[in-house]
UniProtKB/TrEMBL annotation:
Classification via InterPro entries: T2SS_E_N_sf
The protein, known as: Roadblock/LAMTOR2 domain-containing protein
Species annotation: Pseudomyxococcus hansupus
SUPFAM superfamilies: EspE N-terminal domain-like
Length: 251
């Protein structure tokens, strides 16, 4: 994990977290249905052409009210900072750099640190037991015939709680983060259709692979994600075994 914090006149202008599953601000705006993907693409193109500020342009174009933008940006950067400041034994590099910054959307450090809710700290032994159970469950998932990568992911943040398998050509954490959009889209569709039911699993069939998504019935927002080689996988057996693994998973 790494990140960058831009400070202008003693105030934080931007904070960026670089880690598997981390969401950028434009993705958050689209996810929360504040703006459309097309709006974001147009604004990004405009900013690249004239060097404008992304957030200020959204406000200027009337796509997002300034108060809404300021509050959402504050919460987003607060989450980024909290994650960065929680790192132990982190190395920091300070780079003074003369540059202009036209946006008024800057924040005092106290606004950002106090804005993020403080998560309750689980007992170390309990946390260790949970992580061991997650790891064991994911390792069992890899024993499914044809499976070559699996992870447990959070559809709300896109972050992975654990992963196994994968390779340079297939990053399971990146794939899971991207497929959180699939889970959220299906949940939204069910809501619009008035379907009051739970998703048992979602199957994505590719030319050479199956991607199987199974939301946890015991923990809202979390889902198991497994990638299988289509030539060697038995889809019915994979769904059956993944259902059993879900029952044994404790988070």
């Amino acid at each position: 994990m790494s990140g960058r914090i831009f400070v202008v006149a003693r105030k934080v202008a931007w904070a960026v977290l670089n880690s598997p599953g981390a969401l950028n601000f434009s993705t958050v705006l689209i996810r929360d249905q504040v703006v459309s993907r097309e709006d974001v693409e147009q604004v990004v193109a405009e900013c690249r052409q004239n060097g404008g500020n992304f957030c200020e342009t959204l406000v200027t174009w009337g796509l997002v009210p300034r108060d809404t933008m300021r509050d959402m940006l504050r919460r987003h950067m607060s989450e980024q900072l909290e994650a960065l400041l929680s790192l132990t034994d982190a190395q920091a590099l300070f780079v003074p750099q003369p540059r202009t910054y036209s946006s008024q959307l800057t924040y005092g450090l106290d606004e950002l640190i106090s804005a993020a809710p403080k998560p309750s700290t689980p007992h170390p032994q309990v946390e260790s037991e949970v992580m061991a159970n997650v790891k064991q469950s994911l390792e069992e998932t890899l024993k499914i015939e044809g499976a070559f990568a699996a992870c447990l992911a959070d559809s709300k943040s896109g972050m992975c709680l654990g992963s196994v398998g994968g390779n340079a050509a297939f990053n399971i954490e990146t794939a899971a983060a991207a497929n959180t959009e699939v889970v959220r889209a299906k949940m939204k569709a069910m809501s619009l259709l008035g379907i009051k039911d739970r998703i048992e699993d979602i199957l994505i069939t590719l030319g050479e692979q199956y991607h199987l998504i199974r939301p946890l019935g015991s923990k809202d927002g979390l889902f198991l994600y497994v990638a299988l080689h289509r030539t060697s996988a038995n889809l019915a057996m994979a769904r059956f075994k993944l259902s059993d693994i879900e029952k044994s998973l404790q988070v």
